[in-house]
Design goal:
Blueprint: H1 9-42, E1 51-56, E2 65-71, E3 84-91, E4 97-101, E5 112-114, E6 119-121, E7 128-130, E8 135-137, E9 146-152, E10 155-159
Length: 184
């Protein structure tokens, strides 16, 4: 059967099939190309690699570990209260600090500090960490994640542009002035 324009049924269905496949291809390709090109299109947000203040050094007495919070530098309006991120700050000797992410290195549950025993404990699976963040017992295979820090004009600042993970450079247990070996 041929249509008036000399187009056969087979030819018409072939062209409709190609048109349909092209439409499906565009629906699949546009998000992928957008994802691949998004770093060039959007760029990095302003606070991504900035140093954030945890407050004056007086908030962190020598020899104590205190809970502190900072505001996520890459916050969106939908984040609300979840953009306030807690961390543990340990003032080792008045000049040296350790700033730990609150998340357990096992599955990310929030750890608590128990000053009576001098241990961080994870309520989810029984992970325990010493006061210096190194692993004491339980399922975690490494110590707590530690933020890089620096002291400027009497304030403690942390580099919190990225959440620490095992693959992120901030996860290495170092501070900005001196390198120390990993705990676990």
């Amino acid at each position: 059967m041929t249509l008036p324009d000399g187009l056969s049924r087979r030819g018409m269905l072939m062209k409709l099939g190609l048109l349909f496949n092209a439409a499906v291809g565009m629906v699949l390709v546009v998000p992928i190309v957008g994802y691949v090109l998004s770093p060039m299109i959007r760029g990095r947000r302003a606070g991504y690699n900035s140093w954030l203040s945890l407050g004056p050094l007086g908030r962190f007495p020598v020899g104590e570990t205190r809970l502190a919070t900072y505001r996520n530098p890459v916050v969106t309006p939908e984040d609300g209260e979840t953009a306030n991120i807690p961390c543990w700050v340990r003032n080792v000797d008045g000049e040296k600090f350790q700033v730990f992410a609150i998340n357990c290195a096992h599955l990310g549950c929030p750890v608590r500090w128990f000053p009576q025993s001098g241990l961080f404990m994870c309520p989810c699976h029984g992970g325990v960490y010493y006061s210096d963040g190194s692993r004491a017992s339980g399922p975690p295979e490494r110590g707590l994640f530690e933020y890089r820090y620096k002291v400027e004009q009497g304030n403690l600042l942390i580099d919190a542009g990225q959440m620490p993970t095992t693959g992120a450079p901030t996860a290495s247990l170092i501070n900005i002035t001196a390198r120390k070996t990993p705990c676990a």
